[in-house]
Amino acid sequence: MTRTSHARTRSAGAAVLAAGALLLAGCGSAVTQTPSRADTDDAVTVENCGREVTVDDAPEAAVGMHPAQTELLLRLGLADRLAGQAQATAQALPDDVAPLAEDVPVLGDAMPPSREDLLAVEPDFVYSPTTYEFTAEQGFAGIDQLEQAGAAVYVATGGCADRRMTGQVTDLFDDLENVGEIFGVREEAAGLVADSEAALDEVATAVADVERLRVAQVYVEGTTLQAIGAGIEHDILRLAGADNVYGPDDPAFAEFFAATITPESLAAEQPDALVFSVYDEEHEAATREYLTTTFPDMPAVRENRLIAVSSADVFPGTLGNISIVREIAERLYPDAF
Protein backbone atom coordinates (compact mmCIF):
# COMPACT_ATOMS: atom_id res chain seq x y z
CA MET A 1 0.00 0.00 0.00
CA THR A 2 1.12 3.56 -0.44
CA ARG A 3 2.57 5.62 2.39
CA THR A 4 -0.77 7.40 2.78
CA SER A 5 -2.93 4.29 2.85
CA HIS A 6 -0.45 2.50 5.09
CA ALA A 7 -0.74 5.24 7.67
CA ARG A 8 -4.51 5.30 7.33
CA THR A 9 -4.93 1.56 7.75
CA ARG A 10 -2.87 1.48 10.93
CA SER A 11 -5.93 2.66 12.82
CA ALA A 12 -8.24 0.29 10.98
CA GLY A 13 -5.80 -2.35 9.86
CA ALA A 14 -3.88 -2.23 13.10
CA ALA A 15 -7.19 -2.68 14.62
CA VAL A 16 -8.01 -6.21 14.02
CA LEU A 17 -7.40 -9.77 14.78
CA ALA A 18 -6.29 -12.34 17.09
CA ALA A 19 -3.76 -14.63 15.60
CA GLY A 20 -0.73 -15.17 17.77
CA ALA A 21 -2.64 -17.86 19.61
CA LEU A 22 -2.70 -19.94 16.44
CA LEU A 23 1.04 -20.41 16.51
CA LEU A 24 1.28 -21.15 20.19
CA ALA A 25 -1.56 -23.64 20.13
CA GLY A 26 0.11 -25.43 17.24
CA CYS A 27 3.60 -25.35 18.72
CA GLY A 28 2.64 -26.22 22.25
CA SER A 29 4.14 -23.09 23.77
CA ALA A 30 2.96 -22.19 27.22
CA VAL A 31 2.72 -19.00 29.19
CA THR A 32 5.55 -18.73 31.67
CA GLN A 33 4.10 -17.55 34.97
CA THR A 34 7.28 -17.19 37.00
CA PRO A 35 10.39 -16.77 34.88
CA SER A 36 13.81 -17.60 36.22
CA ARG A 37 15.49 -14.26 36.77
CA ALA A 38 19.06 -14.02 35.59
CA ASP A 39 21.53 -11.68 37.26
CA THR A 40 20.46 -8.25 36.04
CA ASP A 41 22.64 -6.15 38.34
CA ASP A 42 24.94 -5.28 35.45
CA ALA A 43 23.79 -2.94 32.71
CA VAL A 44 22.62 -4.58 29.48
CA THR A 45 23.12 -2.92 26.09
CA VAL A 46 21.62 -4.14 22.81
CA GLU A 47 21.68 -2.69 19.29
CA ASN A 48 18.32 -1.58 17.94
CA CYS A 49 17.45 0.50 14.88
CA GLY A 50 20.94 1.93 14.73
CA ARG A 51 20.81 2.93 18.42
CA GLU A 52 22.16 1.44 21.59
CA VAL A 53 19.46 0.57 24.10
CA THR A 54 20.86 0.33 27.62
CA VAL A 55 19.08 -0.72 30.81
CA ASP A 56 20.82 -0.66 34.18
CA ASP A 57 18.37 -3.10 35.76
CA ALA A 58 15.57 -5.34 34.51
CA PRO A 59 12.62 -3.01 33.72
CA GLU A 60 9.80 -2.86 36.27
CA ALA A 61 7.28 -0.70 34.34
CA ALA A 62 7.10 -1.85 30.72
CA VAL A 63 4.55 -0.82 28.12
CA GLY A 64 3.65 -2.95 25.11
CA MET A 65 2.80 -0.49 22.35
CA HIS A 66 0.70 -3.03 20.43
CA PRO A 67 -1.10 -6.21 21.56
CA ALA A 68 1.49 -8.28 19.71
CA GLN A 69 4.28 -6.84 21.87
CA THR A 70 2.13 -7.08 25.00
CA GLU A 71 1.56 -10.74 24.19
CA LEU A 72 5.26 -11.42 23.85
CA LEU A 73 5.96 -9.82 27.24
CA LEU A 74 3.18 -11.90 28.79
CA ARG A 75 4.50 -15.10 27.24
CA LEU A 76 7.90 -14.31 28.71
CA GLY A 77 6.29 -14.29 32.15
CA LEU A 78 6.48 -10.54 32.62
CA ALA A 79 2.86 -9.72 33.49
CA ASP A 80 3.97 -8.23 36.81
CA ARG A 81 6.35 -5.91 34.95
CA LEU A 82 3.68 -4.30 32.74
CA ALA A 83 2.65 -0.71 33.47
CA GLY A 84 0.46 -0.37 30.39
CA GLN A 85 -0.85 -1.95 27.19
CA ALA A 86 -1.37 0.29 24.15
CA GLN A 87 -3.53 -0.02 21.01
CA ALA A 88 -5.42 -2.68 22.96
CA THR A 89 -8.49 -2.56 20.70
CA ALA A 90 -6.35 -3.13 17.62
CA GLN A 91 -6.13 -6.86 18.24
CA ALA A 92 -7.54 -9.17 20.90
CA LEU A 93 -5.02 -10.94 23.07
CA PRO A 94 -5.14 -14.74 22.77
CA ASP A 95 -7.45 -16.39 25.27
CA ASP A 96 -4.65 -18.08 27.19
CA VAL A 97 -2.82 -14.84 28.00
CA ALA A 98 -5.68 -12.32 28.10
CA PRO A 99 -6.45 -12.97 31.80
CA LEU A 100 -2.88 -12.02 32.67
CA ALA A 101 -3.46 -8.53 31.30
CA GLU A 102 -6.80 -7.84 32.98
CA ASP A 103 -5.26 -5.50 35.53
CA VAL A 104 -2.80 -3.83 33.15
CA PRO A 105 -3.89 -0.24 32.35
CA VAL A 106 -5.10 0.27 28.78
CA LEU A 107 -3.53 3.28 27.07
CA GLY A 108 -5.54 4.68 24.16
CA ASP A 109 -7.67 2.57 21.85
CA ALA A 110 -6.68 1.42 18.34
CA MET A 111 -4.16 4.22 17.97
CA PRO A 112 -0.92 4.74 19.91
CA PRO A 113 -1.44 6.65 23.16
CA SER A 114 -0.89 10.37 23.41
CA ARG A 115 2.37 11.66 24.77
CA GLU A 116 0.66 12.60 28.04
CA ASP A 117 -1.08 9.24 28.52
CA LEU A 118 2.09 7.25 27.93
CA LEU A 119 4.29 9.37 30.16
CA ALA A 120 1.64 9.31 32.89
CA VAL A 121 2.34 5.63 33.68
CA GLU A 122 6.05 6.43 34.09
CA PRO A 123 7.37 3.59 31.91
CA ASP A 124 10.97 2.45 32.14
CA PHE A 125 10.73 0.29 28.98
CA VAL A 126 8.57 0.83 25.88
CA TYR A 127 8.34 -1.96 23.29
CA SER A 128 6.87 -1.09 19.88
CA PRO A 129 6.29 -2.85 16.53
CA THR A 130 7.42 0.16 14.44
CA THR A 131 8.81 3.67 14.76
CA TYR A 132 5.37 5.06 13.83
CA GLU A 133 4.30 4.85 17.47
CA PHE A 134 6.87 7.53 18.28
CA THR A 135 5.82 10.11 15.69
CA ALA A 136 5.84 13.38 17.60
CA GLU A 137 3.85 15.10 14.83
CA GLN A 138 0.96 12.76 15.64
CA GLY A 139 1.00 13.78 19.29
CA PHE A 140 2.83 10.63 20.37
CA ALA A 141 5.84 10.62 22.68
CA GLY A 142 9.06 10.68 20.68
CA ILE A 143 11.95 8.35 21.43
CA ASP A 144 14.06 11.25 22.71
CA GLN A 145 11.25 12.36 25.02
CA LEU A 146 10.85 8.88 26.44
CA GLU A 147 14.56 8.49 26.98
CA GLN A 148 14.68 11.85 28.75
CA ALA A 149 11.89 10.57 31.01
CA GLY A 150 13.99 7.53 31.89
CA ALA A 151 12.43 4.94 29.57
CA ALA A 152 14.40 2.62 27.33
CA VAL A 153 12.76 2.27 23.89
CA TYR A 154 12.91 -0.90 21.80
CA VAL A 155 11.43 -1.21 18.28
CA ALA A 156 10.84 -4.57 16.60
CA THR A 157 13.79 -5.15 14.29
CA GLY A 158 11.60 -5.51 11.22
CA GLY A 159 9.92 -2.20 12.06
CA CYS A 160 13.12 -0.18 12.01
CA ALA A 161 13.13 2.37 9.20
CA ASP A 162 16.29 0.98 7.62
CA ARG A 163 14.96 -2.60 7.78
CA ARG A 164 11.46 -2.13 6.38
CA MET A 165 12.46 -3.07 2.84
CA THR A 166 14.60 -6.08 3.78
CA GLY A 167 12.85 -7.38 6.88
CA GLN A 168 12.52 -11.10 7.46
CA VAL A 169 10.23 -13.22 9.57
CA THR A 170 13.20 -14.40 11.62
CA ASP A 171 13.89 -10.83 12.76
CA LEU A 172 11.47 -11.78 15.53
CA PHE A 173 14.12 -14.08 16.95
CA ASP A 174 16.55 -11.19 17.39
CA ASP A 175 13.83 -9.30 19.24
CA LEU A 176 13.11 -12.20 21.57
CA GLU A 177 16.79 -12.68 22.34
CA ASN A 178 17.27 -8.96 23.01
CA VAL A 179 14.18 -8.63 25.19
CA GLY A 180 15.11 -11.81 27.02
CA GLU A 181 18.52 -10.31 27.74
CA ILE A 182 17.05 -7.00 28.90
CA PHE A 183 14.61 -8.61 31.34
CA GLY A 184 16.85 -11.47 32.39
CA VAL A 185 14.53 -14.14 30.98
CA ARG A 186 16.89 -15.69 28.46
CA GLU A 187 15.61 -19.24 28.82
CA GLU A 188 12.00 -18.20 28.34
CA ALA A 189 12.92 -16.23 25.22
CA ALA A 190 14.92 -19.16 23.88
CA GLY A 191 11.87 -21.37 24.35
CA LEU A 192 9.70 -19.09 22.21
CA VAL A 193 12.41 -18.97 19.55
CA ALA A 194 12.69 -22.75 19.53
CA ASP A 195 8.91 -23.17 19.16
CA SER A 196 8.84 -20.67 16.29
CA GLU A 197 11.80 -22.27 14.54
CA ALA A 198 10.11 -25.66 14.80
CA ALA A 199 6.94 -24.25 13.26
CA LEU A 200 8.87 -22.79 10.32
CA ASP A 201 10.87 -25.98 9.88
CA GLU A 202 7.65 -28.00 9.69
CA VAL A 203 6.35 -25.80 6.89
CA ALA A 204 9.69 -25.91 5.07
CA THR A 205 9.64 -29.70 5.14
CA ALA A 206 6.03 -29.83 3.92
CA VAL A 207 6.61 -27.56 0.91
CA ALA A 208 10.11 -28.74 0.03
CA ASP A 209 9.01 -30.81 -2.97
CA VAL A 210 5.88 -29.00 -4.11
CA GLU A 211 5.54 -27.52 -7.57
CA ARG A 212 5.66 -23.89 -6.54
CA LEU A 213 2.72 -21.71 -7.44
CA ARG A 214 3.18 -18.16 -8.71
CA VAL A 215 1.71 -15.90 -6.05
CA ALA A 216 1.06 -12.16 -6.05
CA GLN A 217 0.48 -10.27 -2.82
CA VAL A 218 -1.84 -7.31 -3.22
CA TYR A 219 -3.71 -4.73 -1.21
CA VAL A 220 -7.01 -3.26 -2.35
CA GLU A 221 -8.54 -0.08 -1.02
CA GLY A 222 -11.64 0.95 -2.90
CA THR A 223 -10.60 0.53 -6.52
CA THR A 224 -6.91 1.22 -5.89
CA LEU A 225 -4.78 -1.86 -6.45
CA GLN A 226 -1.33 -2.16 -4.95
CA ALA A 227 1.29 -4.88 -5.14
CA ILE A 228 3.54 -5.85 -2.23
CA GLY A 229 7.06 -6.74 -3.26
CA ALA A 230 9.48 -6.38 -0.37
CA GLY A 231 9.94 -6.56 3.39
CA ILE A 232 8.48 -9.07 5.79
CA GLU A 233 5.46 -9.58 3.52
CA HIS A 234 7.71 -10.86 0.73
CA ASP A 235 9.60 -13.12 3.13
CA ILE A 236 6.35 -14.61 4.47
CA LEU A 237 5.38 -15.77 0.97
CA ARG A 238 8.88 -17.14 0.35
CA LEU A 239 8.77 -19.22 3.51
CA ALA A 240 5.28 -20.45 2.60
CA GLY A 241 6.71 -21.95 -0.59
CA ALA A 242 5.44 -19.35 -3.03
CA ASP A 243 7.09 -18.23 -6.22
CA ASN A 244 6.66 -14.48 -5.71
CA VAL A 245 5.37 -12.57 -8.73
CA TYR A 246 6.76 -9.35 -7.25
CA GLY A 247 10.11 -8.99 -5.52
CA PRO A 248 12.56 -6.47 -4.09
CA ASP A 249 14.65 -6.54 -7.26
CA ASP A 250 11.77 -4.98 -9.21
CA PRO A 251 12.37 -1.24 -9.78
CA ALA A 252 8.85 -0.49 -8.52
CA PHE A 253 9.94 -1.53 -5.03
CA ALA A 254 13.28 0.20 -4.94
CA GLU A 255 12.20 2.69 -2.29
CA PHE A 256 8.97 1.34 -0.80
CA PHE A 257 7.65 -2.16 -0.17
CA ALA A 258 4.36 -1.45 -2.00
CA ALA A 259 3.52 0.10 -5.36
CA THR A 260 0.28 1.04 -7.11
CA ILE A 261 -0.30 -1.09 -10.20
CA THR A 262 -2.92 -1.29 -12.93
CA PRO A 263 -5.38 -4.17 -13.13
CA GLU A 264 -4.04 -4.87 -16.62
CA SER A 265 -0.51 -5.39 -15.36
CA LEU A 266 -1.66 -7.84 -12.70
CA ALA A 267 -3.86 -9.70 -15.19
CA ALA A 268 -0.87 -10.08 -17.50
CA GLU A 269 1.04 -11.94 -14.76
CA GLN A 270 -1.69 -14.60 -14.47
CA PRO A 271 -0.81 -15.56 -10.88
CA ASP A 272 -1.92 -18.93 -9.55
CA ALA A 273 -2.91 -17.37 -6.23
CA LEU A 274 -3.49 -13.96 -4.67
CA VAL A 275 -2.70 -13.14 -1.06
CA PHE A 276 -4.25 -9.96 0.29
CA SER A 277 -4.28 -8.33 3.72
CA VAL A 278 -7.50 -7.11 5.32
CA TYR A 279 -8.41 -5.23 8.47
CA ASP A 280 -11.95 -6.53 9.05
CA GLU A 281 -14.65 -8.74 7.55
CA GLU A 282 -16.16 -5.92 5.53
CA HIS A 283 -12.80 -5.10 3.97
CA GLU A 284 -12.27 -8.77 3.14
CA ALA A 285 -15.67 -9.05 1.46
CA ALA A 286 -15.07 -5.89 -0.58
CA THR A 287 -11.63 -7.08 -1.67
CA ARG A 288 -12.91 -10.50 -2.70
CA GLU A 289 -15.67 -8.90 -4.74
CA TYR A 290 -13.21 -6.58 -6.46
CA LEU A 291 -10.78 -9.39 -7.31
CA THR A 292 -13.40 -11.85 -8.55
CA THR A 293 -15.23 -9.32 -10.71
CA THR A 294 -12.08 -7.66 -12.08
CA PHE A 295 -10.14 -10.86 -12.81
CA PRO A 296 -12.71 -13.61 -13.56
CA ASP A 297 -10.33 -15.46 -15.91
CA MET A 298 -7.25 -15.29 -13.67
CA PRO A 299 -6.06 -18.72 -12.46
CA ALA A 300 -6.11 -17.46 -8.85
CA VAL A 301 -9.82 -16.66 -9.17
CA ARG A 302 -10.78 -19.72 -11.21
CA GLU A 303 -9.04 -22.05 -8.73
CA ASN A 304 -10.40 -20.18 -5.70
CA ARG A 305 -6.96 -19.31 -4.39
CA LEU A 306 -7.80 -15.93 -2.93
CA ILE A 307 -6.10 -15.97 0.46
CA ALA A 308 -7.02 -13.27 2.97
CA VAL A 309 -4.63 -12.58 5.83
CA SER A 310 -4.92 -10.17 8.71
CA SER A 311 -3.02 -6.92 8.38
CA ALA A 312 -1.99 -7.37 12.02
CA ASP A 313 -0.18 -10.60 11.14
CA VAL A 314 2.22 -8.78 8.86
CA PHE A 315 3.19 -6.23 11.50
CA PRO A 316 6.90 -6.57 12.26
CA GLY A 317 7.99 -8.58 15.27
CA THR A 318 4.81 -10.54 15.91
CA LEU A 319 4.10 -14.21 16.45
CA GLY A 320 1.58 -13.75 13.65
CA ASN A 321 4.54 -13.55 11.27
CA ILE A 322 5.14 -17.22 12.09
CA SER A 323 1.58 -18.53 12.08
CA ILE A 324 0.72 -16.79 8.83
CA VAL A 325 3.46 -18.69 7.01
CA ARG A 326 1.71 -21.97 7.74
CA GLU A 327 -1.72 -20.50 7.05
CA ILE A 328 -0.71 -19.43 3.55
CA ALA A 329 1.22 -22.64 2.85
CA GLU A 330 -1.77 -24.79 3.79
CA ARG A 331 -4.01 -22.84 1.43
CA LEU A 332 -1.51 -23.07 -1.41
CA TYR A 333 -0.59 -26.74 -0.92
CA PRO A 334 -3.32 -28.46 1.13
CA ASP A 335 -2.13 -31.92 0.09
CA ALA A 336 1.31 -31.26 1.60
CA PHE A 337 -0.05 -31.09 5.14
TrEMBL record:
Signal peptide bounds: 1-32
PROSITE patterns in UniProt: FE_B12_PBP, PROKAR_LIPOPROTEIN
Keyword terms of this UniProt record: Signal
InterPro entries on file: ABC_Transporter_SBP, ABC_transptr_periplasmic_BD
Coiled-coil residue windows: none
Record has Signal as a keyword: yes
Keyword Signal attributed: yes
Location of the Fe/B12 periplasmic-binding domain: 61-336
Xref: SUPFAM superfamilies: Helical backbone' metal receptor
Protein family: Belongs to the bacterial solute-binding protein 8 family.
Protein name from the UniProt record: ABC transporter substrate-binding protein
